[in-house]
Design goal:
The protein is 53% helix and 14% strand. Strands 2-1-3-4-5 form a 5-stranded parallel beta sheet, sandwiched between helices. It folds into 3 domains: 119 residues, Response regulator (Rossmann fold); 97 residues, Winged helix-like DNA-binding domain superfamily/Winged helix DNA-binding domain (Arc Repressor Mutant, subunit A), CATH 1.10.10; 134 residues, Alpha Horseshoe (Serine Threonine Protein Phosphatase 5, Tetratricopeptide repeat), CATH 1.25.40.10. By secondary structure, it is of the alpha/beta class. The chain is built from 15 helices and 12 strands. Helix 11 runs antiparallel to helix 12, helix 12 packs antiparallel against helix 13 and helix 13 runs antiparallel to helix 14.
Length: 362
């Protein structure tokens, strides 16, 4: 796997490129940064294979940053990401491995990743499985996206992933996925679908063991990279907000690119879906509290906007966004977001913002 970092002063750009890299099945994201100095601090203690750098950043441009990264780590694959064609010549003059023009296409990114693998002689793990649970459920290997013969086969794999490597009883699985069937007929559906799951993975070059022990089943987590599992680990181990845990909070929050198993009406997934949404909102509010206390209101604005992309009418996210804008002396933007929030409440819920908003906007 290619060990990579992304540096771009715009968080949405970071997240978009991060998702594309993770979906490729070829990249392990070791760090995502909107501030070049934090990236440099990270690289003092962590080795990587490649860095994806935005060229135009306010505090330190990507060209200067690349020179400092090379001084720290020596030969490294530098890929510049830019919206401007004129930077291409400059990128190659500086011996960058490649450059990507925004918006980045999947095909063009694949070319770049293949070049990195060849240049760095990186061994790729052909047995790995990448599973994305936030947003659309997606399973990929180096051979591409896994297609399942039936919807139930896809759901069965999602169910096992939901257990994070833990065992689930066969009767419980049948009750959740085939409640309309009983006895031998239900068992036939289960066994057939389990076979389809294993076959789909084998056809895409991976053999992930699905273990069976006394009527219970689990999926071996050893060669699986899953955003949901990583989010759970980071969120559970982050501890109180503060400098030591800040990166964990940000990394976990950045993994939440959409609701859990979005578009899948799986009743068994509702509990996890709600729990993960609540955890995500909690992380954002912790980040807001830390950054406001540090006087870095622009970071609060950045994260509240990210949260509102998923929960546009969330009361506390809107309040903290508007509050941070006012603290940053940007009353014009605060008024604009207040109007958007008020309009959404009126249209969808037939409600008005509460008195706390009105006091805030005086």
């Amino acid at each position: 796997m290619i060990r990579a970092i992304i540096v771009d002063d715009e968080q949405p750009s970071v997240e978009k490129l991060s998702k594309m890299l993770q979906d490729s099945g070829m990249v392990e994201i070791k760090g995502k940064f909107t501030e070049p100095l934090k990236a440099l601090e990270f690289l003092k203690a962590n080795r990587i294979d490649a860095c994806f750098l935005d060229i135009e950043m306010p505090d330190m441009d990507g060209i200067e940053l690349s020179n400092r990264i090379i001084n720290l780590q020596g030969k490294i694959a530098v890929v510049f990401v830019t919206a401007y064609h004129q930077y291409a010549v400059e990128a190659f003059r500086l011996n960058a491995l490649d450059y990507l023009l925004k918006p980045v296409s999947d095909d063009r990114l694949k070319e770049t990743l293949d070049r990195i693998v060849e240049e760095k002689n990186i061994g790729m793990n052909n047995d790995g499985l990448t599973v994305r649970c936030f947003g659309k459920f997606r399973v990929t290997t180096l051979c591409g996206e896994v297609r399942f013969r039936t919807e139930k086969a896809e759901e069965l794999l999602a169910f096992l992933i939901d257990r994070r490597g833990g065992f689930a009883g066969r009767s419980e699985i049948i009750d959740c996925l085939w409640e309309e069937y009983e006895g031998d007929r239900a068992l036939i559906h289960f066994n057939t679908t389990l076979h389809y799951v294993k076959k789909a993975l084998l056809l895409h070059g991976v053999q992930i063991p699905i273990e069976h022990d006394r009527g219970s089943y689990r999926i071996d987590s050893g060669n699986i990279s899953c955003d949901y599992w990583k989010f759970h680990t980071l969120a559970a181990g982050a501890g109180p907000s503060g400098p030591d845990n800040l990166l964990k909070y940000e990394e976990a929050a950045a993994l939440y690119t959409g609701s859990y198993l979005s578009g899948k009406e799986y009743p068994w997934a509702e509990r996890s879906r709600q729990m993960l949404k609540d955890q995500y909102i909690g992380l954002l509010l912790e980040l807001s509290g830390y950054y406001n206390a540090a006087g870095r209101h622009n970071k609060t604005v950045e994260w509240m906007k990210a949260g509102l992309m998923h929960e546009p009418l969330h009361r506390e996210l809107n309040y903290r966004l508007i509050e941070a804008l006012l603290l940053a002396n940007d009353r014009l933007s605060a008024s604009r977001y207040y109007d958007v929030y008020r309009s959404g409440l009126r249209k969808k819920l037939k409600q008005e913002p509460d008195d706390y908003f009105k006091k805030l906007m005086r």
